[in-house]
From TrEMBL, chains A, B:
<keyword id="KW-0479">Metal-binding</keyword>
<dbReference type="InterPro" id="IPR050287">
    <property type="entry name" value="MTA/SAH_deaminase"/>
</dbReference>
<dbReference type="InterPro" id="IPR006680">
    <property type="entry name" value="Amidohydro-rel"/>
</dbReference>
<feature type="binding site">
    <location>
        <position position="217"/>
    </location>
    <ligand>
        <name>Zn(2+)</name>
    </ligand>
</feature>
<feature type="binding site">
    <location>
        <position position="220"/>
    </location>
    <ligand>
        <name>substrate</name>
    </ligand>
</feature>
<feature type="binding site">
    <location>
        <position position="98"/>
    </location>
    <ligand>
        <name>substrate</name>
    </ligand>
</feature>
<feature type="binding site">
    <location>
        <position position="305"/>
    </location>
    <ligand>
        <name>Zn(2+)</name>
    </ligand>
</feature>
<dbReference type="Pfam" id="PF01979">
    <property type="entry name" value="Amidohydro_1"/>
</dbReference>
<keyword id="KW-0378">Hydrolase</keyword>
<comment type="similarity">
    <text>Belongs to the metallo-dependent hydrolases superfamily. MTA/SAH deaminase family.</text>
</comment>
<feature type="binding site">
    <location>
        <position position="69"/>
    </location>
    <ligand>
        <name>Zn(2+)</name>
    </ligand>
</feature>
<dbReference type="GO" id="GO:0046872">
    <property type="term" value="F:metal ion binding"/>
</dbReference>
<dbReference type="GO" id="GO:0090614">
    <property type="term" value="F:5'-methylthioadenosine deaminase activity"/>
</dbReference>
<dbReference type="InterPro" id="IPR032466">
    <property type="entry name" value="Metal_Hydrolase"/>
</dbReference>
<dbReference type="GO" id="GO:0050270">
    <property type="term" value="F:S-adenosylhomocysteine deaminase activity"/>
</dbReference>
<dbReference type="InterPro" id="IPR011059">
    <property type="entry name" value="Metal-dep_hydrolase_composite"/>
</dbReference>
<feature type="binding site">
    <location>
        <position position="71"/>
    </location>
    <ligand>
        <name>Zn(2+)</name>
    </ligand>
</feature>
Amino acid sequence: MAKRLIIRNGRFAQLGADSKQTTLQGFMVVEEDRIVYVGETLPSEYAADDAEEMDGSRLFFMPGLVNTHGHAAMTLLRGYGDDMVLQEWLQNKMWPMEAKFTDQDVCAGTALAVLEMLKTGTTTFVDMYDHMNEVAKVCEQSGIRAALMRGAIGLCSEEVQQQKLQEAVQFAKDWNHAANGRITTMLAPHAPYTCPPAFIEKFVQAAHDLDLMLHTHMSETEAEVQQNVTDYGLRPVAHLEKLGFFSRPSFVAHAVHLTDEEIEVLAKYNVGVSHNPASNLKLASGVARIPDLMRAGVQVSLGTDGAASNNNLDMFDEMRLTALIHKGVSGDPTAVPAAEAMRIATVNGAKMIQLQDVGLLEAGMKADFIAINIDQPHLLPHTDLVSHMVYSATGRDVAHVFVDGKHIVKDGQCLTMDEERIRDEAARAFEGLLTR
Amino acid sequence: MAKRLIIRNGRFAQLGADSKQTTLQGFMVVEEDRIVYVGETLPSEYAADDAEEMDGSRLFFMPGLVNTHGHAAMTLLRGYGDDMVLQEWLQNKMWPMEAKFTDQDVCAGTALAVLEMLKTGTTTFVDMYDHMNEVAKVCEQSGIRAALMRGAIGLCSEEVQQQKLQEAVQFAKDWNHAANGRITTMLAPHAPYTCPPAFIEKFVQAAHDLDLMLHTHMSETEAEVQQNVTDYGLRPVAHLEKLGFFSRPSFVAHAVHLTDEEIEVLAKYNVGVSHNPASNLKLASGVARIPDLMRAGVQVSLGTDGAASNNNLDMFDEMRLTALIHKGVSGDPTAVPAAEAMRIATVNGAKMIQLQDVGLLEAGMKADFIAINIDQPHLLPHTDLVSHMVYSATGRDVAHVFVDGKHIVKDGQCLTMDEERIRDEAARAFEGLLTR
């Protein structure tokens, strides 16, 4: 018989289209990697003697958070240069350090990132970086779910471009559906302003050949949009449309600077937007038009971006920012209600990366979920627990994390990663970068 | 001999005007309620045998956070109505419930708020509410520092107005400098739009008579500013100036909608602004012109506002929002750097309420400080700990809190308050409000 976990007397976020209320009090049953039942009472068929039991009475259960844009290894540069003008920050701080990154550094930085993400309730993340085999190995071992891709900057010779493309393709082939399906892969030319059109077209062709999704940075800053117009006579959306990018299932990160027409084009091609509010604010890029995108039917998900421009990987923080800033900037207090912010941070993120069976606490879904201890001062009284998760909880409140049915974080401790070793290796890797 | 505490091998935030670096590694010595030494080495005169010692080697020490605007008892209404239009929220949700508040409710709600604040690193808070004797008692017993005032709405008969004024004055007299000086008092007509001019003038006169500071809500929404122009022919700043409000040491909450001329008037009278970013965003009031206020020399501090419009009392959250949103909205990534955000949340808050010896880790200052465990994934590597406190830490990372030299929170547990009882009483109080 399948290994079974019964959670008794918990409160469960219900964010599906058919849900009458956002919180259900009752029972959840997990068998192997799947949720098989959520309901107010426990049907007798599940009450087997040998099932593992969990007391949910002080816990709120919600889908694991899905972080749809980031560069995990950049945790090594957290706090190394803040509050600076973008070009100065990139040229004097980030790029010189990133150029030194070895496999070992990426492994250390990614492990630190994955540990932080798991402990703060993220069960799936998207990573676009270099040395991706190292990233995939960390994901395989830690138990997290991930969509991975080698991000390729094309400001180099055609020969080097070709190498990067091959590397990206090889990585995508090697790791797609690895780790019991927890790892999927995509292709990712870095951005229209860092990739010549012909280079982007090669990625589009490869995505067709391998049937993979495409991801890229787009329209993060106004300057980059203007540069695109100067260089190619088109704004980035029309430019990518022309290069065939949107002929593939695809999603873009940032999309801060969009016209109404561009929003329509994204909706038409079903191109998703990974919103990264903290990073966009910190780098002074602006505030993305999220309510307008959602009204137009564009799928929106949430990302942290790299830790160097955030500076944390706590998706609770992004969820709260999303619920707050669009109200303040639009003047509409009903913009992005709490339950919608939670959907954006969970099920919408899963759908964005084509995980149709992740992101809801419903029978048939993957058992990717987290539990928060709600008997804490800042989560009382228990008026509206979804609201509390969005407006008052932090990732530090997460007590339990399950991915693919496996208990990964228990009482705040990560069971699959050696925290002390990871902390030490990250500190040593950073010292090494400073002295090399 | 005075009771002495020596903290060894800690890292200490140094935010004073003379500080060469924002973090100092070394020693801090506390005697009774004062910091007597902070430095890289420990002078032999402090190395007494009977001193209490604390190992600071995994901790970052910073001044306790100062929350300069709030309504503590409103924790009882946390999550009771979110994402609504302001008037609907006030008229259908907040006011009917608040009208039922008894002494006991205010005691329960304030205790929950103070517990949350202490555990998340706030050592001083400003409270404007009703049933203030209950609030003062909670402060006295919990060990927190507070500036308290009876907030008076003047939309009532002159007789009731007079009662409220007397109540406010009596409270201010009874509690000023109570609890070993931890409690100070002020006077607070609620807002220009809720208080007739003559009522505000009476508060101004009473503040002169008793030599007290004044505090009020001002220009939170554009609608309220326009109403002021309609009713009195003046925008709120000119209106309050005319009523003599600024002839007293005073500070206002919100100040979201200000003209350049109004900013100049606030600077001229040295009127401070308590910025409440989360509340202003959540209620869709807008984004205050904080960089402009600071450039004009207006003192700026930080507040959470009540938990019903936030919905937490974690000042780390406000500190991060302040460092993030003004960059994103102004387009200037150097706006409100991390160290400045920390000053606004600590020493500037203390100065705002005339506590000249609170808010810095320096010899001679009151021993109001907190310690954060920095050996955590989201606070590594140790590049810039002030940046980490602002951009990555949360109040849930606070391990120790000292107020007036007393150890109030130890390893995350509050030593002065009975957490379980407070949680139960808050839950019961909320149930009572629902059913009465």
